[in-house]
Amino acid sequence: MNRVKNILFVGVGGQGIILASKILISGLISAGYDVKMSEVHGMAQRGGSVTTQVRYGDKVYSPIIGKSSADAIVAFEKIESLRWIDYLKSDGKLIVNDYKIPSATVLSEKEKYPKNVIENIKSHIKNVTVINAAEEAKRLGNIKSQNMIMLGGLLKNLQLPEVNWAKAVRENVKERFVDLNIKAIEVGMNI
């Protein structure tokens, strides 16, 4: 039986979503999975919407995840989770960063950032893990490590003990950031 898993990463440009996806893919490939990935960058390199779709299993024919098909959504920014929630399976897992990045329209005061985003999500989705990745990243000494903390939260849920995630980090991250990224993944896995 070819059971394909569908993972959707959503967030804002500059949050390290593509790097997190590449580490996931690298680990899955080295564990023998067939993997496909699709990525979409928003209008702005920094601040625009970014998504990556990762599908893995024995044999994967397409990188695209349809609505109501994601086994997990990892939202690096909480509003992005609301934008993509239609892609989550009814029994899927939502891992959301309790982090706010105001859009250009919010910054220009044309729109207001919605209130009670996390509460709204929890009222509609039963399987939600909320991570305050910014707080955890500050404790590690680098706010940019939020992406690896979020990845760690996902990896805990995927339960893939055969994958060497430290090796995947080493293959995708500059040497001077390897230890920080491995530690950040461990923090995410322990939340």
How many distinct beta strands? Answer: 6
CATH superfamily: Pyruvate-ferredoxin oxidoreductase, PFOR, domain III
Architecture, according to CATH? 3-Layer(aba) Sandwich
Can you list the strand order of the major beta sheet? 2-3-1-4-5-6
Percent in strands = 15-25%
Structural class: alpha/beta
Kindly report how far apart the N and C termini lie: 32 Å
Could you list the spans in which at least 5 consecutive residues all have pLDDT below 50? none
SS element count, helices:
8
Estimate nothing, just give the exact number of structural domains: 1
Computed CA radius of gyration, to the nearest angstrom: 16 Å
- What is the string of SSEs from the N terminus onward? EHEEEHEHHEHHHH
Mean pLDDT, all residues: 92
CATH topology: the name is Pyruvate-ferredoxin Oxidoreductase, domain 3
Shape: globular
Overview of the structural elements:
The protein is α/β, with parallel strands linked by helices. The chain has one domain (5-189): Pyruvate-ferredoxin oxidoreductase, PFOR, domain III (Pyruvate-ferredoxin Oxidoreductase, domain 3, 3-Layer(aba) Sandwich). It is built from eight helices and six strands. It has helices spanning 17-30, 78-84, 104-107, 117-124, 133-140, 146-158, 165-172, 178-189, and strands at 5-12, 34-41, 49-57, 70-75, 88-97, 128-131. A six-stranded mixed sheet has the order 2-3-1-4-5-6, with helices on both faces. Helix 1 (17-30) packs parallel to helix 6, helix 1 packs across helix 7 (165-172) and helix 5 (133-140) packs across helix 6 (146-158). It is globular. The mean pLDDT is 92.
